[in-house]
Design a protein that fits this description.
The protein is α+β, with helices and mostly antiparallel strands. It folds into four domains: 162 residues, MoaB/Mog-like domain (Molybdenum Cofactor Biosythetic Enzyme, Chain A), CATH 3.40.980; 54 residues, Molybdopterin biosynthesis moea protein, domain 2, CATH 3.90.105; 89 residues, Molybdopterin biosynthesis moea protein, domain 3 (Molybdopterin biosynthesis moeA protein, domain 3); 98 residues, MoeA, C-terminal, domain IV (Beta-clip, Beta Barrel). The protein contains seven helices and 30 strands. The strands form nine sheets. The protein has a six-stranded mixed sheet with strand order 7-4-6-5-9-8, with no helix packed on it. The chain has a six-stranded mixed sheet with strand order 16-13-17-21-20-18, sandwiched between helices. Strand 20 and strand 21 form a beta hairpin. Helix 3 runs parallel beside helix 6. The chain is elongated and about 95 Å long. The relative contact order is 0.12. Belongs to the MoeA family. It is an enzyme of class 2 (transferase). It catalyses: adenylyl-molybdopterin + molybdate = Mo-molybdopterin + AMP + H(+). Pathway: Cofactor biosynthesis; molybdopterin biosynthesis.
């Protein structure tokens, strides 16, 4: 049995970033940027008005009380005439004519003369006007040639807004990891709902893994259920290899029982075992191997919370490494109730989060932490991670926390009772901090 950190090191060491592919910006949501992007233009790409008013040349003649003739009017998108020196009516977003370098807000002027249609002909300034006033300068947001997004960035709506503004319509993204799921167990019922036979249960691990992997932008090539025998499992592995998957995630049959055939089967097909058994709870029997044909195999115990822990704390780091992303940030909260853990094991506990009256993030592990219980998982906000070197964790200690899902961009925060699940707010974190 090895430590969690050693298991992750063995798991990630041989991994390389998946190849890139071209993607339309409209389809890039959730994808991972393959290369650092540089800006093809300045943003803004020209000096323009920050508000409705009058463009003019600031100087000694533009003090408060000065009067100025107004010649012309410009709205956003209008073609700009040549250089000029007289004031010009201008609307927000319109380009400043050459020779003019400031904009006075319309409400800080008096209109002295106007044409019959209301167009101002002469104005008086109520305040002094200085160069650059109310002007959005060329490149003040993004300069031409600047790096705007780093490789490994997840493309979300904010990034799409930036790239669209820069006129970028296609970009190189990392190919989605291809994953096959194999659920083992003759007791598992799959397919169309029907009355359970004696000893049967509904397969919940498969649908959970499909949902989590898709949410993490992986391509789920297949999800099959096989009984507790060697040949169907090997056949499923072979189909996964033929489909060109990058990773196989299996559930069940990985412990020490007489029907736990997965470890020996992987050895028989020539897989190279990276580790078997990790000092964690739940999920200790977890196994990782590399098939001779290439795909990584993560064999998770079949108990639901062992599957959830395996997905969050083993599958997720693999997906990040394949996408060329760095480690996740380390997040902390104050432990709201004392916990006792078995020394030597890294414990993963489902927990509720809330902000106390001082705005400090609190975490309370939920009751009923047995790994077969699914309902607490559905009501949790986050995982609390208790390091294996200590046994007792007193209330008030700082502990590590992690989001529930693989695609970790934010944490849910429950109500102040720590027990409600309406989750009124979010606790966001940066991706740039190393784990």
């Amino acid at each position: 049995m090895i430590s969690y950190r050693e298991a992750i090191e063995r798991l990630l060491a041989p991994l390389s970033v998946l190849p890139s592919e071209s993607c339309a910006l409209a389809d890039a949501g959730g994808r991972v940027l393959a290369d650092t992007l540089t800006s093809p233009l300045a943003l803004p790409s020209f000096d323009h008005a920050a508000m409705d008013g009058y463009a003019l040349k600031a100087g000694a003649s533009t003090g408060g009380g000065s009067e100025h003739p107004v010649r012309g009017s410009l709205a956003a998108g209008d073609a700009v005439p040549g250089a000029r020196s007289s004031a010009c009516e201008i609307m927000t977003g319109a380009r400043l004519p050459d020779g003019l370098d400031a904009v006075v807000a319309v409400e800080r002027t008096d209109v002295l003369q106007a044409q019959p249609d209301g167009t101002p002909r002469r104005i008086r300034l109520l305040d002094d006007v200085t160069p650059g006033q109310n002007v959005r300068r060329t490149g003040s947001d993004v300069s031409r040639g600047a790096s705007v997004l780093a490789a490994g960035t997840v493309i979300e709506p904010a990034q799409i807004m930036l790239l669209a503004a820069l006129g970028i319509t296609r970009l190189a993204v990392v190919r989605r990891p291809r994953v096959a799921i194999i659920c083992t167990g003759k007791e598992l019922q799959t397919g169309a709902p029907s009355p359970l036979r004696d000893g049967q249960i509904h397969n919940s691990n498969g649908p959970y893994l499909v949902a989590e992997l898709r949410r993490a932008d992986a391509e789920v090539v297949s999800c099959v259920t096989v009984d507790d025998t060697v040949h169907p499992y090997v056949a499923a592995l072979e189909r996964a290899v033929e489909a060109g998957v990058d990773m196989v995630v299996s559930t069940g049959a990985v412990s020490m029982g007489r029907h736990d055939f997965v470890p020996d089967t992987l050895r028989q097909v020539g897989a190279r075992l990276l580790f078997h058994k990790v000092a964690i709870r739940p999920g200790k029997p977890l196994l990782a191997a590399r098939l001779h044909a290439g795909p990584l195999v993560l064999a998770l115990p079949g108990t639901p919370m062992a599957v959830a822990v395996g997905a969050r704390f083993f599958v997720a780091p693999v997906l990040r490494a394949m996408a060329g992303q760095g480690g996740e940030p380390v997040l902390h909260a104050t432990l709201a109730s004392a916990q006792h853990s078995k020394p030597g094991l890294r414990h993963f506990l489902r927990a509720a989060l809330w902000l106390d009256e001082q705005g400090r993030l609190q975490a309370r592990p939920l009751d009923r932490q047995e790994p077969f219980r699914i309902q607490p998982f559905a009501h949790a906000d986050a995982w609390v991670v208790l390091d294996g070197h200590a046994g007792d964790f007193a209330s008030g200690m700082q502990v590590e926390i992690a989001s529930l899902g693989l695609a970790a961009t934010s944490l849910s925060i429950g109500a102040a009772t720590g027990g409600r699940t309406d989750r009124p707010s979010r606790c966001a974190f940066s991706r740039d901090e190393p784990r």
